[in-house]
């Protein structure tokens, strides 16, 4: 929190004309001081520290998974839910020292949450660069008036746009205006950047095609020995949009009213309730029982497609080219080709599935006079097997 606050103050107090080198040195100095303070105070949340503390949740020793975690795509750090935005912001700011163009593009697309406003601003910047590319001899296209209404409404309001102009070769200067007393600020493209039109075109394409930097959900893959507790899931509150108290109340009311509701509800009412049920869960914890009884466990978004689970299982297999099937409770086959989400299949907030080799593969193996291997996971996964 201290790091995020300090960096935010720096962003707000930037001088109008500044060099990227001095700004980087300020950022780095702040981080050094914050790390030094954190080391003295024993604070594990110092910037750049990739360790993750386990949540101090009641009964956490018996949870099926300690919580929901994410991976920063820029640093590879493992983050808790409440760390995501601040740590990604810090990683982007640190990237300015190595690649200011890429960092400014990431800042534009990530720090500004209104996607429509971002698109309008990015398209306007692209138009400026197109005019320079199409009319390299015309000086008027190389100058952008900072107080211009379009610039103020579409570009100035977005974080990262000023850094982008400076990174691609624009300089902020004061120019006299005819019939006006004082000068005004302009972004003027430098001669060095003007001499490399292909670079401007490349930067424009990077800006147009970029996406927000988002932390990816960590699967937290684990392998367990065969266990009679395979179908029991004690989940942390991270897995629910509802509070723990609301969940208990929902479960109690549901068990009391199942029969009555099944008689009284219309089809439309049932469909509306099913939609509400699906929205309750953001994540789901899935276990797959393998032929030897071992369990493969991973965390998924509730709205991810079944194909994601097939890919997750396939990555863990020794022979990942052999076709297989996944069966839900009751023997329901989940097809990899169906475009169904886990919450649409009822596989939320947790579920136990069964792995089975494709029937045709089993026939071929048995016809050859052999039996399929019961241990099908990669050796490195089996070496880390746990007791559930």
From TrEMBL:
Broad class of where this protein is predominantly found: cytoplasm
Any single GO BP term: response to stress
CC per GO annotation: centrosome; cytosol; early endosome membrane; late endosome membrane; lysosomal membrane; nucleus
Domain UBX: 279-355
Region annotation (Disordered) ranges: 1-59
Membrane topology type: Peripheral membrane protein
Keywords per UniProt: Cytoplasm, Cytoskeleton, Endosome, Lysosome, Membrane, Nucleus, Ubl conjugation pathway
UniProt cross-references to InterPro entries, sorted A to Z: PUB-like_dom_sf (IPR036339), PUB_domain (IPR018997), Ubiquitin-like_domsf (IPR029071), UBX_dom (IPR001012), UBXN6_PUB (IPR042774)
Compartments, as annotated in UniProt: Cytoplasm, Cytoskeleton, Microtubule organizing center, Centrosome; Cytoplasm, Cytosol; Early endosome membrane; Late endosome membrane
Oligomer and partners: Interacts with VCP through the PUB domain (via C-terminus) and VIM motif (via N-terminus); the interaction is direct. Forms a ternary complex with CAV1 and VCP. Interacts with SYVN1. Interacts with HERPUD1. Interacts with VCPKMT. May interact with DERL1. Interacts with PLAA, VCP and YOD1; may form a complex involved in macroautophagy. Interacts with LMAN1.
Entry function: May negatively regulate the ATPase activity of VCP, an ATP-driven segregase that associates with different cofactors to control a wide variety of cellular processes. As a cofactor of VCP, it may play a role in the transport of CAV1 to lysosomes for degradation. It may also play a role in endoplasmic reticulum-associated degradation (ERAD) of misfolded proteins. Together with VCP and other cofactors, it may play a role in macroautophagy, regulating for instance the clearance of damaged lysosomes.
PANTHER family: UBX DOMAIN-CONTAINING PROTEIN 6, UBX-RELATED
Protein name: UBX domain-containing protein 6
Organism: Cervus elaphus hippelaphus
